[in-house]
Design brief:
This protein is mainly α. It has one domain. Helix content is 77%, strand content 0%. The protein has 6 helices and no strands. Helix 1 (8-32) runs antiparallel to helix 3, helix 3 (50-72) runs antiparallel to helix 4 and helix 4 runs antiparallel to helix 6.
Length: 145
C-alpha cells in the first residue's frame, strides 16, 4: 500500500506510539540503572520491580513494535495486537495495584503528586479506548486488509 493511502489518523497513531515506545524504553533503562532519584515507597517500588514487571515491560514494548509494523502495513492483525496491548496494560495496572502495593505510592506522596498520576492513568486508558475504536472503524471501512 502506498504512503498516500494511509489516513492521517494512522500516521498520528504511528508517530504517537513510536515516541511512546522509545520513551518507555528510555525510562525503563533509567529506572533499572538506578538513574532516577526516588525516596520512600517510590524507591522501594523501583528497586524491586520483580520478574513479572520485567516481563510485562518487555512484552509491552514487543507488542507495541509489532503493532506499529502491522499498522504501517495496514494489516488487519493490528487490531488483534492492539487488543493484546490493552489486555496487557490493564493486567499490569491491576497487578501493580493489588499485588505490588502500588497504592502506597499515593499515600506516601502528597495529593499534588498523586492527582496528576491518576489523571495520567485515566488519560492513558482513554487513549487506548479511542485508538481501539478508530482501528475498528478502519476494519469496518475495509482499510485494514
Amino acid at each position: 500500500m502506498q504512503l498516500a493511502k494511509r489516513p492521517k489518523g494512522v500516521w498520528f497513531i504511528l508517530v504517537f506510539y513510536f515516541v511512546s515506545v522509545l520513551y518507555t524504553a528510555l525510562w525503563t533503562w533509567r529506572i533499572y540503572s538506578k538513574q532516577v532519584p526516588a525516596s520512600g515507597a517510590a524507591a522501594e517500588y523501583q528497586q524491586n520491580p520483580g520478574a513479572l514487571n520485567h516481563f510485562l515491560t518487555v512484552m509491552g514494548c514487543i507488542l507495541t513494535v509489532a503493532f506499529l509494523v502491522a499498522l504501517f502495513k495496514m494489516r488487519r492483525v493490528a487490531i488483534t495486537i492492539f487488543t493484546a496491548i490493552i489486555v496487557l496494560t490493564v493486567f499490569s495496572y491491576l497487578w501493580n495495584i493489588f499485588f505490588k502495593n502500588y497504592l502506597s505510592l499515593f499515600s506516601a506522596t502528597s495529593v499534588a503528586f498523586a492527582a496528576p498520576l491518576v489523571i495520567v492513568v485515566v488519560v492513558a486508558l482513554a487513549i487506548l479506548g479511542m485508538v481501539y475504536l478508530y482501528l475498528r472503524t478502519l476494519v469496518r471501512e475495509g482499510k485494514l486488509s
